[in-house]
Amino acid sequence: MSTNPPTSPPKGVEPLAARAYELRASIRHHNERYYGNDEPEISDSAYDALVRELIEIETDHPELLTQDSPTQTPGAAAGQSPFSPVRHIQPMLSLDNAFDNDGIAAWVVRLEKLVDTPIAYVGEPKLDGLAISLLYENGRLVRCATRGDGETGEDVTQNVMTIADIPHVLTGEDIPTSMEVRGEAFMPLEVFEALRAERLARIDAGEKVSGPEFKNPRNTAAGSLRQLDSKVTASRRLSFYAYQIGAQEGGKEHKTHQALLDWLRGAGLPINPRIEPLKDLADIQRFCASVEEHRHDLGYEIDGAVIKVDDLAQRLEMGFTSRAPRWALAVKFAPEERHTKLIDIKVSIGRTGRVTPFAELEPVFVGGSTVAVATLHNEDDITRRDVRPGDTVIVRKAGDVIPEIVGAVLAERDPSSLPWSFPRLCPTCAAPLVRLEGEANTYCVNSECEAQRLQRIAHFASRGALDLEGLGEERVQWIIDAGLLKDVADIFTLTVNSLAQVTGPPKGKRKGIRIGEKAATKTMVSIDAAKQAPIARILTGLGIQHVGPTVAEALTRSIRDLDEIANASVDVLTEIDGVGPIIAESLVSYFSVDGNRDVLNRLRSAGVILRAPEEDQREVLPQTLEGVSVVVTGTIDGFSRESAEDAITSRGGKAVGSVSKKTSFVVVGENPGSKAAKAESLGVPILDGEGFVRLLEEGPGAFSADAE
């Protein structure tokens, strides 16, 4: 297994290598949106399809598998966070998925090959909430953390403490000295609908309402847990079900999952009453069908079922893959579908000029929320689906995220209806809309288009870029209408006084609202701070096609000056790990436009730092680990995970994430995962903390000498 993306793919698989790269970048982006920002952009099923395609490529072509591939890691890290990081004692792993009875049957067959004794199972609904870990010490709740990337989450102790379902002190006997309880925080549908109704009532009454729109229960629960004020979390009335334990010291050892759940229930923790024992494949399939049929009777959102092996000794025998336990399976349900009327098809203009058609629908409740708009992707998508204004259409929403139209109900179509025609002129600026040769997308060719301007500035100010307070899309439009913004550089010419005078248009019963001095001051503080922002965030904010946060980080690690990036050739850019020809050509094309160069110059003139600060001059350490690959698992006394990896790389070694035959050493600390067992099975040398220090100081030769 290679530890880095291959610089030149083997002959005959270049397109696959490019596709694998695209898939990894896309999956990382959507991981960040889902786990880091609680703002997913695609449905669960679409995300799962990306992962399945990448797994298939990497399985068929192992030479394309990279150590940092999302398929080799348990999850996605959150982005920048106001909460302290918490390292889980035992990782919170992902689950492998199945989507139908055949997938369930294949999983059961695989398990039966791993053990010699009959297998019993336990089934539970798969809640669509937020996985959290509760740490109890001597029966007292001392820390609560989000799942994060599976290894490290966010400390949300004060917020979780407000969830009434969660006991602060455990009751009963055999209480462990230390125990991680895993479970799902979620928002009951009744609570979610009440929150939405209250917010809408305040808006209708003409109140100024800020904060989230409460799009669906999952996002609302996640946002509620990440509040800076725990009183807000308490007001959201979240619930919790425990479903597993992680690390445990002391206390009773349980033989089965059901016995463990019974003990947790007796200790005061809430356990889902819908959990059932299952005896075989037919029972599993019956359970999944029943849960899916009654999913709306539960009072909370689910997106599938989870099946686990009941016998805990069998689980140990079955083990883990690099990202998931073999003994558990998430069975994803098919997206729900509803019929509604397609009122009209319109188009929106993005920051690059890309034209995206969308459908206006008669509101319909599907997938846990009311849908009134659905994306139609591009012209070919509309032609393929053959949907027309006036049609009755089939709408589905997988994972309560992105609504989509499956197709028209042809039996109900008006015989006089005509196919919808893609507009030839931009609805905002009346410039020609052009479909580039070989592309499915259509573009507005006028770079001065007001719609593009709005999206470019809003993107620059968004959370994924500069994260400027008070500059959401609606308010950016107000400021543009006031004549204060023409491009992103103009943001840094705003003042408290000019911003405070900006007034939005009337909306319904609400009169136009002036931004005011207080809000303007907060925004200007955020803008001033952004002048010192990491240059990767500035590069991301420019909205260059194919240049998202991951690519921007890769670019600015190698070239630490935005002017140098702007002047770099395609050949220079493609030398950077993670930057391919398409990205390089997009960068060169962007900076070849005089207007974009001018924006960069004006950002510099406004005091925005376009060069990364010089890195600390570190002591040059002896390269004792040159050519050596080291895996660290568990907690090493005196080292954090990051400092252990830094200690390896600063001495010329490679800090890798999973064990293979090519691994030189595995360092095992307290509470190691499955990597230690894998190292032992492969015959890879295993070191403890003291051995790790010796390896750093003396290199691998020290252990060769011991062997002699």
Topology:
Elements: H1 14-36, H2 44-60, E1 85-87, E2 96-98, H3 101-112, E3 121-127, E4 130-137, E5 140-146, E6 152-154, H4 157-160, E7 178-186, H5 189-204, H6 217-225, H7 230-235, E8 239-249, H8 257-266, E9 276-278, H9 281-293, E10 302-309, H10 312-318, E11 328-332, E12 337-349, E13 354-366, E14 369-375, H11 379-385, E15 392-398, E16 402-408, E17 433-435, E18 442-444, H12 450-461, H13 473-481, H14 496-500, H15 516-530, H16 535-541, H17 549-558, H18 562-567, H19 570-574, H20 581-591, H21 594-605, E19 629-633, H22 641-649, E20 654-656, E21 665-668, H23 675-682, E22 686-687, H24 689-698, H25 701-707
Parallel strand pairs: 2-11, 19-20, 19-21, 21-22
Antiparallel strand pairs: 1-6, 3-9, 3-10, 4-5, 4-7, 7-8, 10-11, 12-13, 12-15, 13-14, 13-18, 15-16, 17-18
Helix pairs in contact: 1-2, 12-13, 16-17
Notes on the structure:
This protein has 708 residues and is an alpha+beta fold. The chain has 25 helices and 22 strands. Helices cover 35% and strands 19% of the residues. β4 (130-137) and β5 (140-146) form a beta hairpin. The longest helix has 23 residues, at 14-36.
Task: List its traits.
708 residues, Helix Hairpins, D-amino Acid Aminotransferase, Chain A, domain 1, OB fold (Dihydrolipoamide Acetyltransferase, E2P), 5 domains, five-stranded mixed sheet, 25 helices
